């Protein structure tokens, strides 16, 4: 009789308290009357006769059940449904659809001994029908995640909320438009139909994955971002300690709270916008080139496949034909093209492009960073190097560049050409021309005060009429820098051939340049540059090269790049 009494108490509690409370919460969630829980307890328990078994079925639907010796409780199936609807009733459109499609929420139980996999959720004819294996208690019910998944497939609730926030919140799509208009007032326009991209998902369960990928970050990505930023902040903190004494710098960027959702498309739009901002702000010429060359940025979703197979960045002409990167010395002008971004958004952030990918793509087609490096060196630094050389050798001496040798057609457009430009030009040609010019100055000064009595200065004035910069051919087996004296017509050319594709390891430091120049002209090395000092200089050079190698390696760490 105790079990029967418990059964009756559970039904009475549900009918007088629980169900009215749930119905009130449902009406508040969807913003109007109509949706309600209706439980026919006779129908619910029709497959069980034993009072204890009936109580177990009823409890699974309307009463919380204890788990793990009473330390935790499992909410009843009805409570899970109500909480799921409350969680998803985010937008007015979703609320309206829920009111229209769900009038009654009803619960049914499979016969005892049934396969729990046969439990189901359906919506048909205004009835949300929940069929569980309630003879197994709470184990035969759906968890909240599964109920939310079912409702999401039917109402696209979270998807709708994400899309709405992306387009309407100031920090979403409007912010990207504002940022791009600031640096590229003449275009391009962004054609990003998020709804169409989501609609390309290969199956209904992947729609929300696509929406989260293109608009926000899922929990795993937020955690990974937080971890990467925290690690980066830790490295920065070590560096800041060194700067504190000299600069008074004590601030280190603190990573954002990983639980805060973002709606600024960090996986898709943010890398595009940030890359365009970087190249456009580098020079007015870059902004003009991008504005006239790219009319539209179109972003689409490639359903299915793997990121390696499916995602792509391409440039299409006004006729829709593919424009390939050019290896010509001067790339042909491009007008009114479309930058087509095809993402494999079902694969999450791995199916998207990071900022460095977009920069690499732009560099392949437009050589914007390369132009910047070369232009800055030629306008700001080469004239100064020429003045320093002319003061020692002759007013006619100046540095010339064999550009076909420096940027041969065999170099791949993009990162290969850019690496060469950086080695040659970066920081005022600190790695290439700077050591050479300084070496010439130092071998002159080592022989005495500059002037007619300085034998090394006199020798250089007689034998050097031009300084020519070439590059060791990439197909050369040696790939080592060299300096030589070549006779061209009636003039002597001092030819410096660094191996620019090897970065810091392909150029001479000042001491190496001095040693090679003295070897060419038969100049004796002074005692001050021999012994321990020479060894220290060599060790310093090697440390600098190791530092350059490490910088390159860190720059290629995909984990840090993806989540920065």
Question: What is the secondary structure topology, with strand pairs?
Answer:
Elements lengths: L1 H29 L5 E2 L3 H4 L6 H12 L2 E3 L4 E3 L2 H12 L3 H10 L2 E6 L10 E5 L2 E6 L11 H12 L1 H12 L4 H11 L5 E4 L1 H6 L7 H9 L3 H29 L21 H14 L1 H10 E8 L5 H4 L1 E5 L20 E7 L11 H12 L1 H25 L6 E3 L1 H4 L8 H15 L3 H13 L9 H9 L2 E4 L12 E7 L2 E7 L12 H12 L10 H24 L2 H6 L1
Parallel strand pairs: 1-4, 4-6, 7-8, 8-10, 11-12, 12-14
Antiparallel strand pairs: 2-3, 5-6, 9-10, 13-14
Helix pairs in contact: 1-3, 1-4, 4-6, 7-10, 8-12, 12-13, 12-15, 16-18, 16-19, 19-21
Give a short summary of the structure:
This protein has about 575 residues and is α/β, with parallel strands linked by helices. Helices cover about 50% and strands about 10% of the residues. It has a four-stranded mixed sheet. Strands 7-8-10-9 form a four-stranded mixed sheet.
Mean pLDDT: 86
> Which stretches are poorly predicted, pLDDT < 50 over at least 5 residues?
222-229, 238-259
Span between termini: 66 Å
- The Cα radius of gyration reads 35 Å
The shape is elongated
Helical proportion, percent range = 40-55%
Strand order of the largest sheet: 1-4-6-5
* Oligomeric state, counting identical vs distinct chains: single chain
Find the structural class using helix and strand composition. alpha/beta
Total helical elements: 23
Largest sheet: 4 strands, mixed
Strand fraction band? 5-15%
| Overall strand count | 14
């Amino acid at each position: 009789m105790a079990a029967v009494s418990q059964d009756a108490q559970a039904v009475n509690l549900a009918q007088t308290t629980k169900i009215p409370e749930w119905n009130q919460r449902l009406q508040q969630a969807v913003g109007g009357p109509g949706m309600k829980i209706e439980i026919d307890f006779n129908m619910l328990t029709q497959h069980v006769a034993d009072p204890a078994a009936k109580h177990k079925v009823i409890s699974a639907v309307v009463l919380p059940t204890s788990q793990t010796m009473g330390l935790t409780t499992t909410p009843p199936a009805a409570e899970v449904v109500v909480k799921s609807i409350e969680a998803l009733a985010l937008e007015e459109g979703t609320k309206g659809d829920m009111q229209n499609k769900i009038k009654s929420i009803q619960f049914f139980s499979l016969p005892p001994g049934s396969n729990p996999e046969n439990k189901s959720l359906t919506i048909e004819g205004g009835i949300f029908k929940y069929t569980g294996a309630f003879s197994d208690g709470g184990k035969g019910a759906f968890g909240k995640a599964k109920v939310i998944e079912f409702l999401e497939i039917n109402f696209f609730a979270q998807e709708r909320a994400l899309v709405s926030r992306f387009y309407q919140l100031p920090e979403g799509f409007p912010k990207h438009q504002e940022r791009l208009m600031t640096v590229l007032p003449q275009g391009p326009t962004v054609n990003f139909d998020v709804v169409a991209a989501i609609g390309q998902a290969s199956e209904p369960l992947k729609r929300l994955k696509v929406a989260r990928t293109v608009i926000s970050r899922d929990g795993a990505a937020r955690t990974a971002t937080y971890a990467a930023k925290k690690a980066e902040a830790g490295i920065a903190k070590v560096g800041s300690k060194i700067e504190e004494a000299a600069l008074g710098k004590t601030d280190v960027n603190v990573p954002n709270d990983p639980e805060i959702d973002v709606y600024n498309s960090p996986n898709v739009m943010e890398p595009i916008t940030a890359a365009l901002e970087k190249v456009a702000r580098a020079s007015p010429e870059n902004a003009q080139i991008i504005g006239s060359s790219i009319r539209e940025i179109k972003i689409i979703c490639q359903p299915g496949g793997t990121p390696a197979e499916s995602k792509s960045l391409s440039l299409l002409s006004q006729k829709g034909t593919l424009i390939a990167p050019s290896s010509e010395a001067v790339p042909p002008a491009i007008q009114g093209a479309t930058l087509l971004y095809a993402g494999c958004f079902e694969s999450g952030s791995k199916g998207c492009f990071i900022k460095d990918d977009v920069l690499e793509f732009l560099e392949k087609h437009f050589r914007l960073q390369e132009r910047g490096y070369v232009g800055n060196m030629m306008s700001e630094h080469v004239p100064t190097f020429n003045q320093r050389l002319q003061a020692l050798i002759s007013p006619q001496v100046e540095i010339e560049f064999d550009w076909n040798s420096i940027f041969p057609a065999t170099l791949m457009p993009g990162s290969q050409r850019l690496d060469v430009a950086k080695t040659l030009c970066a920081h005022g040609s600190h790695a290439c021309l700077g050591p050479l010019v300084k070496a010439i100055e130092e071998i002159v000064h080592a022989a005495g005060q500059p002037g007619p009595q300085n034998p090394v200065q006199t020798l250089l004035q007689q034998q050097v009429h031009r300084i020519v910069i070439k590059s060791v051919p990439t197909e050369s087996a040696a790939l080592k820098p060299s300096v030589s004296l070549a006779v061209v017509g009636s003039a002597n050319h001092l030819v410096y051939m660094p191996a620019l594709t090897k970065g810091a390891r392909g150029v001479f430091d000042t001491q190496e340049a001095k040693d090679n120049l003295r070897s060419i002209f038969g100049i004796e090395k002074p005692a001050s540059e021999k012994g321990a000092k020479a060894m220290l200089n060599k060790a310093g050079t090697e440390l600098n090269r190791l530092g350059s190698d490490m910088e390159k390696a860190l720059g290629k760490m995909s984990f840090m790049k993806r989540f920065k």
